[in-house]
Design brief:
Helix 2 packs antiparallel against helix 10 and helix 3 runs antiparallel to helix 14. It contains 14 helices and two strands; from the N terminus they run H-H-E-H-H-H-H-H-H-H-E-H-H-H-H-H. By secondary structure, the protein is mainly α. The protein has a two-stranded antiparallel sheet.
């Protein structure tokens, strides 16, 4: 308690700095891998992807990041264990932000797409064990986290596999790809719009005053999706293509349509991602601010100070702009060769998996979902289409993220204790 009383302002400033660093790491890693498929398929240039992500990630983080956030991300530790020692919780949250942020920036430097959620969870668990003991951690939560390493990529990979196979059989492997594109692409537009609407309603609009029941959300999504499919049908029908063009030109014209769908999907996923994953940075930061402002009282929920959401949004944008290219390259070109239709299948599968996870409570990592989807698309063309060396490095980075966050947090926690005691 003496630490909070004597160094309250300093603790908040340090937490804000490390929270910004964590948001920077989220932008460099998580946002970059979400835009990687669009860049890898050349649907967007790196500069265009950065601009789009800057707009939609910041909008998601600032507009829909939440009026209230859980103090501790995912309830991974029991805050009641810190009731008598709130200063340990404050120092631990600060240590967790620096540890997770540093790991994300290191992973981004090497081009490893890792889970920001798992980074912060590993860090929080690390300081909790050394400050209070193993009893402060809700270990039952870990079953879901470890299971998500397998379940999440498997779900998105299966969806992407069958989505890509359907595109191949219905459009590309036919005698007249353009005619079949005009027939079937509106259906894919309907699916895309439906999934985007569900993702946005489930993950992006829960804190902006739009309170829809599940039934209302589904009905609104279907109405919007039908309108999008009809507009897409009019657009494709209005395009003039030369029937004398060779098959390569026909394929190129069809790929352009899927490229447009990819850009739309990327915008919606960026908004939903910003609204959801900014909590990895602002959750621990808002916990520190709340505890310091209340002179040591620990609340299950904390109102976010006005400056925290913009801080997280700006950090995400700067992280993407300065360090995002390597992770984009890994996801977009390193795992398998992507075309717009393949990238579309991967992105739609990722969004669909997010919807499934939101509805079932399945613990999920956006990173692992997207990587699994890209793998699924690659497998549809045979195991030789996958770069197994890159995949091995990615899987190893997933496994070591939890312990890396924990070890870094423990070391930083002890340093902070020494500095403030």
């Amino acid at each position: 308690m003496d630490i909070i009383a004597n160094y309250g302002t300093t603790l908040v400033l340090v937490a804000a700095l490390f929270g910004f660093l964590m948001a920077w790491g989220i932008g460099a890693n998580d946002v970059a891998n979400a835009m990687g498929t669009s860049v890898g398929t050349k649907s967007l240039t790196i500069r265009q992807a950065i601009v789009i992500a800057m707009i939609f990630e910041f909008a998601g983080a600032y507009l829909a990041g939440g009026e209230v956030t859980a103090t501790i991300r995912n309830g991974i530790i029991d805050t009641n264990a810190f009731a008598d020692t709130p200063d340990l919780l404050v120092l631990g949250m600060i240590a967790s932000l620096l540890a997770a942020g540093a790991w994300l920036i290191l992973a981004s430097y090497f081009g490893w797409p890792v889970s920001t959620t798992h980074s912060i969870i590993g860090a929080i668990v690390g300081f909790a064990v050394v400050s209070i003991g193993p009893e402060a951690v809700q270990w039952s939560k870990f079953g879901g986290i470890v299971g998500s390493w397998i379940i999440t990529p498997a779900i998105s990979g299966i969806i992407a596999y069958f989505m890509f196979i359907s595109v191949q059989k219905l459009i590309f492997n036919t005698d007249d790809p353009l005619a079949n594109a005009k027939r079937y692409v509106p259906f894919y537009m309907f699916l895309t719009a439906l999934v985007i609407c569900l993702v946005t309603i489930k993950k992006g609009l829960t804190h902006v005053g739009l309170h829809l029941s599940d039934g209302e959300g589904i009905l609104l999504s279907i109405i919007i999706s039908i309108a999008v499919a009809f507009a897409g049908w009019l657009y494709i029908r209005g395009q003039q293509y030369n029937p004398q063009d060779d098959s390569k030109m026909h394929f190129a014209n069809v790929e352009k349509v899927f490229g447009i769908l990819m850009v739309i999907t990327a915008c919606a996923m960026a908004f939903a991602h910003g609204s959801n994953d900014v909590a990895n940075a602002i959750g621990p930061l808002s916990a520190v601010v709340s505890i310091v402002d209340s002179a040591g009282q620990i609340a299950g929920q904390s109102t976010i100070a006005w400056w925290i959401l913009p801080l997280g949004g700006i950090g995400i944008v700067i992280g993407l702009a300065t360090m995002g290219e390597k992770v984009m390259a890994t996801v977009g070109t390193g795992i398998t060769h992507l075309t717009p239709s393949r990238g579309f299948a991967a992105q739609l599968a990722t969004a669909a998996t997010v919807v499934i996870a939101s509805g079932t409570g399945l613990p999920i990592s956006t990173t692992q979902t997207l990587v699994g989807a890209v793998m699924g698309v690659g497998l549809a063309r045979g195991i030789a289409a996958l770069n197994l060396g890159v995949l091995r490095n990615i899987v190893v980075s997933w496994v070591i993220t939890l312990p890396a966050g924990a070890i870094l947090a423990i070391a930083i926690f002890y340093v902070l204790q020494a500095c403030f005691s």
